[in-house]
Write a structure and sequence with these properties.
InterPro entries: KFase/CYL (IPR007325), KFase_sf (IPR037175). Pfam families: Cyclase. One of its GO terms (molecular function) is arylformamidase activity. This is Cyclase. Helices cover about 25% and strands about 20% of the residues. It is an alpha/beta fold. The protein has two domains: about 5-80 and about 120-334, Putative cyclase (Glucose Oxidase, domain 1, 3-Layer(bba) Sandwich), CATH 3.50.30; about 85-115, no CATH class. The strands form five sheets. It has a nine-stranded mixed beta sheet, sandwiched between helices.
């Protein structure tokens, strides 16, 4: 692909031209039409039955590890763009049952509850209708034809309800690059060289290929747990460099997730105003499903102890009709 090596070199990034840098990568790595004009899955199409059989064969112990942060009022959200932490409200309680106010016969009592929350307030997938590029959505559709006040009419997250079950690969960049702390500093831009050197150092079970779901641990969540949330939601963070877009395209991975709020490095890599440029390349242009706010610490410990970094990953979104994202409880099975 012409110009690809230059697009992967962080030293060649023009930090005063975010529009140009985004455009060059969007055009170079665009997957529009690759799976037909009606496609609603993007790179999740790389997961086929054979891939899931391969992933299932990785289970040797039956050990299950949840990769989800809690969904409660103690989460990291601070209200930016109306993103709040979950509000959990009881509708019926044990007190109601004791006092006999529920109206059930023969002493029966029960409890019910309701939760109100943004769909991307804790561990979640970004759907393909979440980000647009110059008014265009995934697969070359007009953004306004895709997402309206009725929701995502074309690529709603419900289409992916059974898709994200595949071989998971953990790349523990925190421990690879900062072995003393296991935590990358805020603002560290993970490069293609970093991803490849981490996979090589971890061994053969970290080889990344078609249909894999890649999990990148930076260690930022571990730091937030220790020091407090601070600006974890939307502030400075380690994350992927814009220059990794070619690697994300070339490897033909199905999805990627991190233990950070925004997947890519923050502040973004420009000296002029910019916001989430890698999102702008990979979601509407590449069709890549992106996960954020995942808890990868227990998995990293398990992988390091065993010396293997591949596993069966089950990470199905809730089939919320027309949603542009979904809360999830991803489970790694070793």
């Amino acid at each position: 692909m012409a110009g690809a090596p230059a697009l992967a070199d962080p030293d060649l990034l023009d930090r005063n031209d975010p529009d140009g840098e985004i455009r060059r990568r969007a055009e170079a790595y665009r997957n529009w039409g690759r799976w037909g004009s009606e496609d609603a899955l993007g790179t999740l199409n790389f997961i086929d039955d054979g891939k899931r059989l391969q992933a299932a064969s990785l289970v040797s112990e039956g050990l299950t590890i949840s990769l989800s942060q809690p969904f409660d009022m103690n989460g990291p959200q601070k209200g930016w763009r109306r993103r709040t932490n979950p509000v959990h409200t009881m509708l019926d309680t044990g007190t109601d049952a004791e006092r006999g106010t529920q109206g059930f016969p023969h002493g029966l009592g029960g409890a019910d509850d309701v939760i109100a929350m943004p769909l991307q307030c804790s561990t979640q997938w970004d759907g393909l209708g979440h980000i647009f590029d110059h008014g265009m959505a995934w697969n070359g559709r007009r953004a306004g034809d895709v997402v309206t006040s009725d929701g995502d009419l074309v690529t709603g997250i419900e289409h992916a309800a059974a898709s994200p079950v595949s071989r998971g690969v953990l790349l523990d960049l925190g421990r690879h690059l900062q072995p003393d702390t296991g935590e990358l500093p805020d603002g560290y831009a993970i490069t293609t060289a970093d991803l490849e050197s981490c996979a090589a150092a971890q061994g053969a079970t970290s080889a990344v290929g078609r249909g894999d779901i890649v999990l990148v641990r930076t260690g930022q969540l571990a730091r937030a747990r220790r020091d407090g949330w601070g600006d974890y939601a939307g502030g400075a963070a380690p994350g992927l460099s814009l220059t990794t877009a070619g690697w994300l395209h070339r490897t033909e991975i199905a999805a990627i997730a991190t233990d950070t709020w925004g997947f890519e490095v923050r502040p973004n890599e420009f000296d002029v105003p910019a916001f989430q440029p890698l999102h702008q390349v990979v979601i509407p242009n590449m069709g890549l499903t992106v996960g954020e706010l995942w808890d990868l610490d227990a998995l990293a410990d398990a992988c390091r102890t065993r010396g293997r970094y591949e596993f069966l990953l089950v990470a199905a979104p809730l089939p919320i009709t027309g949603a542009v994202g979904s809360p999830i409880n991803p489970v790694a099975i070793l």
